[in-house]
Automatic annotation (TrEMBL):
<dbReference type="Pfam" id="PF00126">
    <property type="entry name" value="HTH_1"/>
</dbReference>
<dbReference type="InterPro" id="IPR000847">
    <property type="entry name" value="LysR_HTH_N"/>
</dbReference>
<dbReference type="InterPro" id="IPR036388">
    <property type="entry name" value="WH-like_DNA-bd_sf"/>
</dbReference>
<feature type="domain" description="HTH lysR-type">
    <location>
        <begin position="1"/>
        <end position="58"/>
    </location>
</feature>
<keyword id="KW-0805">Transcription regulation</keyword>
<dbReference type="InterPro" id="IPR036390">
    <property type="entry name" value="WH_DNA-bd_sf"/>
</dbReference>
<dbReference type="Pfam" id="PF03466">
    <property type="entry name" value="LysR_substrate"/>
</dbReference>
<keyword id="KW-0804">Transcription</keyword>
<keyword id="KW-0238">DNA-binding</keyword>
<protein>
    <submittedName>
        <fullName>LysR family transcriptional regulator</fullName>
    </submittedName>
</protein>
<comment type="similarity">
    <text>Belongs to the LysR transcriptional regulatory family.</text>
</comment>
<dbReference type="InterPro" id="IPR005119">
    <property type="entry name" value="LysR_subst-bd"/>
</dbReference>
Amino acid sequence: MELRHLRYFVTVAEELNFTRAAARLHIGQPPLSMQIRDLEAEIGTPLFDRSRRRVALTEAGRRFFEHAREILEQSREAVEEARRAGRGEAGELKVGFASSLPYTSTLADTLYTYRQRYPQVGLQLHEMFTTEQFAAILHGVLDVGFVRHGGLEVPAGIQTREIGRDPLRLVVHAGHPRADRGEVSLAEFRDDGFIAFPPDVGSGLPFVLDRLCRSAGFAPRIVQTAREATTQIGLVAAGLGTALLPAPLECVRLPRVRYLAIRDEGAHFSLAIATREGAPNPLLAGFLDVLKEIAG
């Protein structure tokens, strides 16, 4: 039994007239009658009562009609769903992002625009450190990631493209001698203890901190580690040290915390988009098009 047999049957059942049904189907009446008889033979029971004056559904025909119509509708929906997926208009896209990204406009604007443009696509969002995103992309857990890899090595099979650079800020306690300065040099903080991400969490920021401090003539003294940027800000408020964080985190306001601009060259943290090499994906293509509009 093929879908065309169901279409023939449903059309005859709706018209209750073989001549009109054949005209709708753009086939001759004799071939249509033959197809219906073949269908009845396959099912093993008559579906129509036929006479010179009228065509009517049998009880078996009425029951078959209900299911056949549903099957045809489901097949149409399946075809359209597949076509939408092929155009990148339906399905599920898995997106990773570093913890500082919700404080930027890039992530929010991209997700908002994409959802408006592709309402049938489900978004699965995962907050992960950069190295975790790289592994997830390689294993198909993520389709795309917003990463800050800094000095981290990009694994083979991953391609990245820089989409922005956020200035870095020194986060200091309000009682720090330089807390009221508008702009500072890192060399002025050679005697400070720093609060940083642990080196094994997969953030590129510890490498950036070390690089900038060494360029300023000293090695940073790490007095405390914390896995979350907001935790680091809280520890600064407690007077435990100084932190280096991306400027978008300035929106986290605590009474005893100040954010200082840095004049040193290279005092920024790159934001990049990461995808797997050679992995064509219509959903991802649409997402990257939106991102290009937002971030260039």
